[in-house]
Write a sequence for this structure.
């Protein structure tokens, strides 16, 4: 049987529609994209449709278009299942390429669904390479992820000591240097930790971390700052003798894009946490996880409680009553 590749005519329009519908049924586009069957007549009139026939029976279809002087686009390539593995697709594309080249084009592009792995493999074997990635998502989900965070910001500092008086003395010395605060409380010890709450540190996370660092250096002791920022993310910093030995942020790029190494660095280090606090590293790894968006994690006011428990802080030890339901 001789294979013939020829342009479709107006008389072929019912056949073109039939082949196009078979293509759409076999490789359906995403549901939100409108079908474009009404455009087929325009393709035919522009001599941009090729049919592949054997003994007068059509087995294949190619739809093409031009974008500028140098670029030809293969919009659709389809071969009926019973005629595959006979080189029909290859011959269709050869004819498409020859026609494009004769009209002055230098490049060919085509679109293929990410789910059509068979076709993608064939095209790559023919030397075609990805040049663009189209991403799609639901608008309601996108808006939820992009909405500005407006929730509560709060936190506390925990010093690994039973010496309440020593912590009080350091806090009284350090807080005036950090800024004006409406009030500070020091309580405990709870399970080996003394907890500090301060109004300034509650609303300014950077001050919370500075207080924890100063306490760790002055006591000296292991200290921990832990809290929620903007109602959306959880952060902790673990200090040992003034050094920040582990920092965790539940959404590392919440405040902006970071180099890959910085994203990794903002993940919890369960072994360091275990060594300094006695926490179970498996539990820390399970709870202190990171994500690309707050929506991919439990609510921050729930996550911070889970992390506090994994680090050995009891409910009395973190003292956030009234803030977790803000």
């Amino acid at each position: 049987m001789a294979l013939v590749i020829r342009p479709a005519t107006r008389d072929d329009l019912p056949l073109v529609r039939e082949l196009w519908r078979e293509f759409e049924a076999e490789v359906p586009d995403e549901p939100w994209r409108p079908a474009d069957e009404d455009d087929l007549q325009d393709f035919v009139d522009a001599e941009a449709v090729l049919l592949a026939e054997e003994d007068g029976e059509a087995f294949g279809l190619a739809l093409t278009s031009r974008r500028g002087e140098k670029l030809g686009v293969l919009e659709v390539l389809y071969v009926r299942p019973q005629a595959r593995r006979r080189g029909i697709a290859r011959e269709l594309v050869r004819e498409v390429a020859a026609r494009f080249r004769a009209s002055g084009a230098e490049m060919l592009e085509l679109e293929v669904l990410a789910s059509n792995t068979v076709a993608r493999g064939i095209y790559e074997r023919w030397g075609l390479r990805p040049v663009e990635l189209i991403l799609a998502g639901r608008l309601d989900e996108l808006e939820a992820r992009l909405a500005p965070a407006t929730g509560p910001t709060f936190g506390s500092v925990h010093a690994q000591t039973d010496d309440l008086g020593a912590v009080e003395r350091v806090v009284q010395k350090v807080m005036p240097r950090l800024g004006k605060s409406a009030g500070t409380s020091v309580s405990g010890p709870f399970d080996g930790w003394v907890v500090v709450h301060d109004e300034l540190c509650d609303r300014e996370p950077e001050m919370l971390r500075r207080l924890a660092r100063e306490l760790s250096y002055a006591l000296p002791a292991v200290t921990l700052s832990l809290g929620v920022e903007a109602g959306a993310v959880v952060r902790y910093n673990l200090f040992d003798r003034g050094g920040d030995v582990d920092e965790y942020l539940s959404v590392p790029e919440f405040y902006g894009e970071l180099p890959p190494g910085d994203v990794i660095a903002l993940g919890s280090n369960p072994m360091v946490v275990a060594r300094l606090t006695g926490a179970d590293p498996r539990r820390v790894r399970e709870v202190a996880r990171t994500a690309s968006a707050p929506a991919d994690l439990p609510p921050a006011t729930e996550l911070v409680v889970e992390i506090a428990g994994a680090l050995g802080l009891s409910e009395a030890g973190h003292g956030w009553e009234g803030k977790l339901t803000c």
